[in-house]
Amino acid sequence: VFVFDGYANWDAEARIKVRVVTERAYHALFMHNMLIRPSLEELEEFGEPDFIIYNAGAFPANRFSNYMTSTTSVDVNLRSREMVILGTQYAGEMKKGVFSVMHYLMPKRGVLSLH
To answer: Which of 2, 31, 68, 112 could form a disulfide bond with 20, CB atoms 3.0-4.6 angstroms apart?
Structure first.
């Protein structure tokens, strides 16, 4: 298991803390490159993340569950601020999840979100 903590958004007033939990090293490395890496001091005070990504891409979703039509599932829960990825090795799903959450949260804080 690989865990990476980072920030989305360069503005310290508007950024969110993101934790990535993944089974593959390259997924953690991808997000290490995508997110803003905290300094050692920031990492010590990181605390609870604002958003967590659980990436178990090699594990297939149960396509026989209700409303499931394939072994791939990418789900974002804005209430619990979590993302779960099953059945896909595409690292870009994590990036898309962070962008989606930022596009949802930033206007609520009076910040224009751009991509």
So the answer is: 31
Q: In angstroms, rounded to a whole number, what is the distance separating the alpha carbons of residues 65 and 83?
A: 18
- For the chain, where are the alpha helices, taking DSSP H only? 25-34, 40-44, 92-108
CB-CB neighbours of 114 under 10 Å? 7
Asked whether 96 and 115 are in contact (CB, 8 A), the reply is no
pLDDT in tens, 21-79: 999 999 999 999 999 999 999 999 999 999 999 999 999 999 888 888 899 999 999 99
Which strands, in side-by-side order, build the sheet including 73-77?
Answer: 2-8, 16-22, 51-56, 82-86, 73-77
